User: Fold these one by one.
Assistant:
Number 1:
Amino acid sequence: MNDIIKNARKDALTLVAFAAVFTLVMAFVYQITKAPIEKSEAEARMALFAQIIPPNIHDNDVLKDAITIAPSPLLGNKQPTIANRARLNNQPQAIILEAIAPDGYSGDIKLLIAIKYDGSVSGVRVLTHKETPGLGDYIEIAKNDWIKLFDGESLTQTNDAGWKVKKDGGKFDYMAGATITPRAVVKAVHKALQYFEANKAQLFAEGAKPNE
Amino acid sequence: MSNQYSEIALNGLWKQNPGVVQLLGLCPTLAVTTSAVNGLSLGLATALVMACANGTVSPVRKLVPDEIRVPVFILVIAALVTVIDLLIHGFALPLHKVLGIFIPLIVVNCIVLARVESFAAKSEPAPSIFDGLMMGLGLTAVLTILGGMRELVGKGTLFSGLDLALGPQFKHYVITVIPDYHGFLLAILPPGAFLGLACLVAYRNWAESHDTQSQANLSLKPDH
């Protein structure tokens, strides 16, 4: 009986010792990589922002000028998201919204949509998607320029009926073989523009939290 | 001594190759190998984890009671993978984007535990590290070849994504083997991984049996 307890104690102590040592190792590495990780994530985000908002139209730190906005059906999200704002001499120039197209071919398509203060699209990029490689993935900028079709589009330039792919009677091109994917993206961008129109004033207010 | 090392190398790369002989670690093998670069990157990350895991376990093997060796080994492997994941995330973000969720998956790759259990727990540190490295490189070779095959058949290119892993200056190393190729989706989708791996296993078995036959023919012993 004594032997069993002795063995069990030894096993437990060994396990605890290993856990303690390796937790220390991980904590140490976490500490030294924390700053580089944050820095490189911020750089990657900034590079993405620069693709959809020309750097010369703003003079503020877009990463820092951020507000948290409540989820909205028009943005397709269920969690609060961060919106970044671009300003020039403190005048609002553009905002970057995150939106989700929930009706892609396989799951959510997460989009980053930059909208200029005048209500026109500055640029759209796909953050993540699970569309079929080789068919629906032309929405990625790395694969195709299709996503640039939205540049300069607005609710005034294209009426509601036009915000569809050509197959559905709208004005947006798509590629044979994948209609569901572009249809979902067009719809999401359209709704994001509507969200922008409805909440424009609050979105640019300092630190404000606009309603749905 | 050098004999022992060459045997370890031969085992890892060919005789006991984890990818096509032991058939261990199929989860990343099948999931990641949509391109040669993906296969190569994950293979090298796995080789690094395996060498570190073997090198960590071997020196402390006598401190670990037999009954709790598996939890201890898994603890060691999980900690090492976390460390490597953090390092790649911090210092090679583009690579981290490519490998994404697959790095944490190295923890559950049974080939790592298998080598720790069957080699490092019984051997000196130096051969253990070498064994982990060689097994890892054997897996890397399989992942790279499988990735290359699927990429070539599926997309008509080789080494696409090299610029993502190493930097934009490597963009022109991407080879477009078949221009204006419309792609063969089956190769990129999961079934392509199974079919490709089956071809590699078949080739390995054919080459091995070919080898033993010619050796048998050369041998002068009558009973062979």
Number 2:
Amino acid sequence: MNDMRQILEDSVVRLFSEQVDRDVLTRIEETGWPDDLWSQVDELGICQVLAAEAAGGADGVWADAYPIVRACGHYALPLPVPETITAVWLARQADCMLPAGVPGLIPEVLDAGDVHENSLSLDGVVIPWGRRADYLIGVADINGAAELIVVSAAGASIEQAANLGLDPRDAVSGRSLEIEARYAFDLPADVIHWIGAMLRAAQIAGAGAACLELAVNYAAEREQFGRSLSRFQAIQHYLADLAGTMASVDAIAAAAFEALDRSGISNGQRDARFEIAAAKCRASEAVERLTRLSHQVHGAIGFTYEYGLHFLTRKLWAWRAEFGGAGEWGEYLGTVAFESGGDGIWQTITG
Amino acid sequence: MLSEKLRFHPCELPPSLDALRAEVRAFLREETAAYPAVHLSNSWDAYDPEFSAKLGARGWLGMTLPAAYGGHGRSAFERYVVVEECLAAGAPAGFHWIADRQSGPLIVRYGTAAQKHEIIPKITAGRACFCIGMSEPNAGSDLASLRTKAEHTADGWVVNGTKIWTTYAHRADYMIALFRTDSASESRHAGLSQFLIDLRKTEGITPRPIKDLTGRLHFNEVAFENAVLPEDALIGKEGRGWQQVTEELAFERSGPERYLSCFVLLTHLIDVIGEDASPATMARIGSQIAWVATLRNMSLSIAGKLDQGEDPALAASIVKDLGCQFEQGLPGLAQELCELEPTLAGHGVDYQQVLGNLIQLAPSFSLRGGTPEIMRGIIAKGLGVR
């Protein structure tokens, strides 16, 4: 791992471990957007990891962003850091400047019916932290050509909602949201869906690691039948299973970020789509075991609001489905497999 | 942080290996064309000296061993490419498997100059078959309880006892065995030593093949009755056998053979289902592809750690455990997705024969190289809870 990546990871972990604990997460669930925490995150510059140096960024690659996104999962961070990293990256691909403030990342592919000359219409599109967004950013498919669209969030109507992890997933509507910029774009129109899937896989890896750490510590401390839970072989095997499951997600998610740096998702050949699909498929499947085993080791205490395991497991259940679940990504890989045929699938896997 | 130890940092093979991969792939395509499909589902169990000699002639065995002894001095990643291509194609690698994977490196590390000069060239030529004498009738997973004794006498080492489940002992040229050399030592892990045995030149060793459930003969019970080994048969340090074996196991447990045993079944399944598969079937197949991609990344990551001299015992146990769950699950999944019944060799279409073979072989995947119970114990220890 290179130096900058390690420094970034260390500083993220330091900030989150100091600032994001059970009490803070509880407060944010009760009172909403934490201005103080967001400005600390903003000051650290992690959202700018993929921005050019000239734009005040770290000029990093996705592999540098991986530990950051993973840490967001590990600490169940209730802020759109992965989404903002993505917005910054999209802007850089189109060589455009973003407005100041919090982006609302539009997960759906926009089309010619939504995009007018100077305005965008949205009808109940679910956008992470839509209520807090200063601007919205999405990609439109205009007669087969992709365009990056940046619109002002002013005038949008918001129907507040949240996912199982209580992160805002608001339905955003607006007849004529003012387009601030549109740029021709050399990426597929559904690029946000792919990047989103990759981000959620990394967050699942991080949250899974945190579940494992809680379970290992709890099993060591909790005594039953006169010895600590960790002395029981059945519990040891649960923890080993949990560790392997988490490690499998971490490995393929990290590989997806590196693959994106290496082969991109625009050349239409054997590109990073393969690793991204594999990562989200594996991650979404793994949520079942990650949550079941970590709750089982904890017993009833893990089912309480007070203990806090749920901050991780509720987000895991939400992330499992967001940007496509194991079924969708499995189907994509299945299509790849049948197109390659039995004879060609190994070549596809090895790239 | 605890989970730091469990991270598998990506290790991408350098593009310079693409040419080697293409060459190996073309060679395998030609060489395996004549074999019946079912034969190619035995993979590293299939004993085929002719195939191994051809692989050796290409320079693809003993690749990482030093040139001074007849090796090829190539990188661990070059070897990795050859090995994973062979496994994915189901090439019959059983004759040279043990020699190439672990016995060669062990001899280079601990053998005498004479042993190296005599044996390494045979390994690289694909003309030496090795077996491993580890388990005993009363020592399976509990390897430290083994009792076969090697006594140091004026004539050399005198061995008495019994080994079991020794694959190809009845055909192999050499055995690397673990014997007890000091019964008095207090720790069960101490007092064990490794030996290099020339099976062609040693009296008093009798292999008795044990039929497996498919009726094939590959593993053996091996009786040692006053078998006399020369002084230099001791390989490595006396009393350090346990540590030496543990080092070998890290290589043994993380290789591509830990998740590719049923890969040919997956390829036949894809072809037999065809492109008109339902979306649900597509998703199930795709999930298996995701697993292969995941396990391959994990296995490569460990190859990277081994190459940098790190000790990846914990990570290797995770790959073995996950890989085994994956490959043992494939025959069941195939039967859920496809109605064609499993058949014996020579009957039905290729897919049916491969399925019939692998259904029967699958139970062994979680026995060889350490059981899931042992793997999970090692992982738990790595987590600090044992």
Number 3:
Amino acid sequence: MKHLAEYDIIVVGGGHAGCEAAAAAANLGSTVLMVTMDLSRIAQMSCNPAMGGIAKGQIIREIDALGGYSGIVTDRTMIQFRMLNLSKGPAMWSPRSQNDRAEFADEWRKTLEGIQNIDFWQDTVTKLIIEKNVIVGVVTSIGKEVYGKSVILTAGTFLNGLIHIGKKNFGGGRVGEKASGGISEQLSLHGFETGRMKTGTPPRIDGRSLNYSLMEEQFGDDNPSKFSFTDTKPLKKQRSCHITYTNQDTHEILRTGFADSPMYSGRIEGTGPRYCPSIEDKIERFSERDRHQLFVEPEGWNTVEVYLNGFSTSLSEEIQNKALRTIRGFENAKMFRPGYAIEYDYFPPSQLRMTLETKYVENLYFAGQINGTTGYEEAACQGLMAGINAHLKINEREPLILGRSEAYIGVLIDDLITKGTDEPYRMFTSRAEYRLLLRQDNADLRLTPKSHELGLASDERMKAVENKRHTADSLLDYFKDTSVAPVEINELLSRLGTAEIKQKIKLEKLLSRPQVGFSDLKNELPQLSAFVESLPAEEEGAMQAEIQLKYSGYLIREQEMVEKMSRLENIVLHSDFEYLKLPSLSSEAREKLTKIKPSTIGQASRISGVSPSDISVLMVFLGR
Amino acid sequence: MQFDTDTICALSTPTGTSAIAVIRVTGNEAFDICKQLFEPADTKKDINKESAFSIHYGFIKDNNDIIDEVLISLFRNPHSYTGEDLIEISCHGSIYVQQKVLQLLVNAGARTAKPGEFTMRAFLNGKMDLTKAEAVADLIASSTAAAHKTAINQMRGGFSDELKELRQKLLDFASLIELELDFSEEDVEFADRKALTTLILEINDMLKRLIDSFSLGNVIKNGVPVAIIGKPNVGKSTLLNALLNEERAIVSDIPGTTRDYLEDSVNMNGILYRFIDTAGIRKSTDEIESKGIEKTFEKINEAKIVLYMFEALETDVPQIEKDLAELSLDTDTDTIIVINKTDQVTGDSIEEKFKSVKDVVLISALNKVNLSSLTEKIESFVTVQSVESNDTIITNARHYEALSKSLAGIEEVISGLNNKISGELLAADIRNSLTHLGEITGEVTNDELLGNIFGRFCIGK
């Protein structure tokens, strides 16, 4: 039966992935329907009220550079901003913010409502309509059928979600919200494998019951920056976080709850993340530590609710309550609601193509936590890429696939699909082999041109990128061509504690000294400052030039590695390649390649169990 | 990865001693690299300017030392086996020479080829028929297996343990650096730079020690060189023949018969010995013989053990002591005084006569009398000094290369620590090192690094 598609793209779910997916597809020109269980809970921050951080902040900058909204929404609703890792080199600088939870969700909703092509429908999707392994629509709980050319599933933790608090457990996608069932079961009939994962969240506390004078205050930056490359405004006033610690008494009380803990009694089957352990896990695994750090994070400008970062737990509510009151500053603490653990279905991501389309059902895309990731940023960037690629596919255009050397987003998707994941996947900078190239400061240079070419990033964004690049290039030429005499500069050099010069020297040489910064030279040399001021995007361009010059040795080396690998990345492997028929491959390689179906030789080379000699064999068979 | 156009080298003839061996060098810089170690006999020649398909005579040199005299054949892309610039070095077939030439090529910037890599390149450059694909693929698969087996067999003593330890230390170091980068917001204590420096210096020492063991490893793999020296006609060639049980050296009564040197290998109790019969030591006016004598002194310097032969009748203890002093051997060369031609002496006064000489053996090479005492003596030096005291030995040129490149990376890290460069740059250097070491041990993956961090530190707010 042929149905008329009412929408180009149906997005199931309204979390961080769903929002970016809907916005990107609609802005590219697709008609989009967002189906979500509760329209008042769009873009919820279900865990901590914060965005960014190390590696995650870089991802938001990339989303922004590609024309997504996470950076803009974050900037408009933040209550504190810090640039992390400033004591390290620019590749490590990572923006992080605390946000007003309610405003964040509100801002996202307003943003989506401002996009003409998006319609909304409040309901639960209970079934997918799949004909001959092609998706054509969805069925909701009230039996409504909606047809679309493609469907992006962003179900988060809602698929068969099961919440645990102490001995109690009940179905739910978040506390107070229903889980959704049926879809995992239906998809497994189409050949999909599912797994269980676990994550947890700490109790929320009434800020009026805390004694902040007993805690350390953690301020935002004095000169706060922001996430978006657009003209959003940095913060003028900020709210502080506070730091306190658990102690031996806290640990004692928590231990009394272990017998009833869903983690230790075996009621939880899913795998939790090692880098975000529950407090009970921390005291069990690192029993030599007599305290653990906790962050008290405000939930917004106008709320007394606080989030106790570091105290994720699924012990019973009584134990949580008792343990909390042993913490310094928490002597009279009152909970708004207890922490809990949640188990949910995910689909091992090796079942996806690089576009996030599933291998088994055409035009069906998965994005976000459903793919085994964790984190708002990780979810949002998958949503963005799924939205872009779903639109491109139905318009018969080439997909947008970002390489590992182009974006953290590329690293993330390649890792998921090539290696799979058996614990919730979070981004770390160490996952990127080209860390020095993937900086937050150059995300726009790396990605905006690609997005602009697709028609997503605006002309205005592109113009800004061109200005920044022009200024950086002009300055680099200037440094190369311009010399200074000892008399002009020696006073500055001695002030900076570096050797004075005896004869004229190129600015390039001076700037490559670690002690000498661009702003030092600019203040000292009037001709340089006049030159810079004549250029557009002065500040950002100058920063680019300085970074590119100071790190040139390392940047060149990474660039060379990228070029070496690119030969492999460009050799396409077709999905119908019959690995099982190649006896020269090792048996492990045959099995893994058949399962993962890598799209390039480069991707194949990253699959664990596929050796260099297997790769040689493949190359030979490709007749290269 | 192995699909580069960088320059690679490999032995193209079977390993082991042979008359002639061929070493192939292919890649963009094949000519420039070979130029660094090849000196044409006609020193005005520049191989870069010589035409393709030409052959040139000259020397392989390690700085100023001549390693071998060779012929090199030049091929230019695309008209070569691999389709790239290619040079074939035809050298003499001793294992020492083969390994030495490969080592020099590596030091000059080539990389040892991986199994099947020459064929692979030929294939990629369209020099082979597609129908051969399967055969080539099988070859790669099987030669990899064979190479792997060989590599394991080549790991002597504690090599693999020591490598494991080295890898773990590097992993720990890398984890500490990554911890600082990715988890600076966490409540974990970061290693202070002093502790990091101590750890990296330890790694540095370990790498250096392994690299140094390469020359000793080669000795064991390619044979312990034993030089037989002495005055002309003292019976050196007769002794060599007796040891080899075959008439190999030309034996005659005319002094100076062995004008250059002869060598051959004997396996005694599992260890290979390369016996080198040298020209006699005497003042000579014969030009060719003088060259032979010069060569003798070179061989003495290369030898691990020197058999210094004297005639029983014509020698006394003061003479031996005087000759030994004149020879002034390296302290790590072991010398055995061999008193030959005991058959010409009657009575047992002879043992009494040489009793005071250290490490002395009395034989008759001609009648093969008391040779077992001599071989036992030789073996006693080898087992005691070389094998037992150095249980970690690398013998494989590829291991040597991987370790050398790791070391270069580690040296970058050390200078980085001294210059206080920031963590992500240190991490880039250490990753570089780990990649090279991964050639032997298997690469360190990001997952492994993270696993190490999560296992050791309490991460997670």
